[in-house]
Queue: 2 jobs
Job 1
Amino acid sequence: SCTAFIEQGTDVFPITIADHSSVVFNNKMWVIGGTISAGAPTATSGPSNRVYSSANGTTWTLENSSLNNY
């Protein structure tokens, strides 16, 4: 069964990203790809091939750190 995903805050994600895909799978929320917004503190703006996951909506893990991420 699926439980509700409750917002954990407005600034918990490690980068500012738009136009991404999101899915809940294997008890985690996954954020895939998208466009990193200009002014993002930890990344250059532009297209992203990053994949993040979180089991709680507060702590996020970069899952594909071995790739050449934008």
Job 2
Amino acid sequence: KQLAGMCEGAPRGTDGEVRLKTTQADLASGLAVTRESVNKELHNFARRGWLRTSRGVITVLDPEALRRYA
């Protein structure tokens, strides 16, 4: 839910991607969960092709899929 909410109103690239400058630790802190649980969910979303992660950036490839999931 939080990722889907962060995508709302965020600027999108020409390909529809949304780049969020945040870390797994920041997400975990905001959700009051462990970084490991955030990592697990992000990995699941990446396997579905909805996002990819790199150091300090989460690139949401399919914001609509995240919104539907939320």
